[in-house]
Amino acid sequence: MDLNIRLPSPVEDIAGPFIIDERNADKTSLSSKISVLVKRDDLIHPIMSGNKWRKLSAALTTISQQQYQHVASFGGAYSNHLHALGYACAALNINFTAVVRGDYSKRLTPTLQDLQRWGTHLHFVSKIEYKNKTSAQYCQLLRQQLNADYLIPEGGSHAKSIVGVGAIMTELETQAPDITHIILPVASAGTLAGLVLNETLPHVKIIGVGVLNGEGYLEDLVNGLLASSTPSYQRKEWKILHDYHHGGYAKTSASLRQYVSEFNQFYADQNRLRPLAIEPIYSGKCFYALNALLSADYFPSNSKVLILHTGGLQGARSLPANKNSST
Ligand SMILES: Cc1ncc(COP(=O)(O)O)c(C=O)c1O
């Protein structure tokens, strides 16, 4: 299986210019006591970017080795997960059905247009039917209906995804062994669970930023994934912050939009060797949260904080600036 995945993803220092809000210009703590690094998983591949390759690699290996014929998975009309999986299945010559939440047949999003171009079968289901996505009985019926022999859960978060995500920690053991915290966005929780379960760098604290309004729900997802894995594994300390979802999944606020736009402008002007950009659904909320935590002196002195850039810029391609605003 060769998808031309570029690993390890680079780790970059963004400490100096990271706080771009002028209100924080007088803060010296960042440069003097806290360092901030970013792990550029967004650069792993132009399409299988961010956490997608990490979460899908083990399943894709099984699918190609055991010669499954037809994969199906769930997601929304802008889903980064469906986009990445559809691309991988096309590259590996495997049939793929995307089970899409809501009927977008008459207004295909850029994500769905790409999928269609890659030969994905688009199966639209109502938002009510979609709620059954985790019911074993529904999944069984769906597999029969679609004639699919391998079903991957929404967001690609399942027991197998944990193994692939763990590779991030193995890379970090060489690239940045002295980090104290990792901060990352959380939606279906597979990425956070994979970092928590990997045995490398056990002292590192994992901080999730909930990108949807899901206090309790997100913790249950993590605990469910942890419970489905080998119990003897040592777990890292973890928590999820719930103050940075800006109204819910794919919702934004004026301050988030401003932050993302200033951030992107700032880093575009830097003319970096590897351009750095964020979007408002996942990475934007996470960088925004990190900025707020740094401003509030949340981290102990001498912390070395690594933010995981989980990619996802494709999903925001058609987001008008004010779409889904919460404020
Ligand atoms: C770009 C991006 N970042 C972060 C996440 C959140 O990861 P997880 O669903 O594993 O919590 C997702 C969703 O899969 C995503 O598409």
TrEMBL record:
Cofactor: pyridoxal 5'-phosphate
Protein EC: 3.5.99.7
Coiled coil (UniProt feature): none
N6-(pyridoxal phosphate)lysine PTM positions: 52
Enzyme class, broadest EC rank: hydrolase
Molecular function GO terms recorded: 1-aminocyclopropane-1-carboxylate deaminase activity; D-cysteine desulfhydrase activity
One family name in Pfam for this protein: PALP
InterPro entries xref list: ACCD_DCysDesulf, TrpB-like_PALP, TrpB-like_PALP_sf
Protein name listed in UniProt: 1-aminocyclopropane-1-carboxylate deaminase
Keyword terms: Hydrolase, Pyridoxal phosphate
Organism, scientific name: Glaciecola punicea ACAM 611
Family the entry assigns: Belongs to the ACC deaminase/D-cysteine desulfhydrase family.
Domain Tryptophan synthase beta chain-like PALP: from-to ranges: 33-311
Residues forming the catalytic site: 79 (nucleophile)
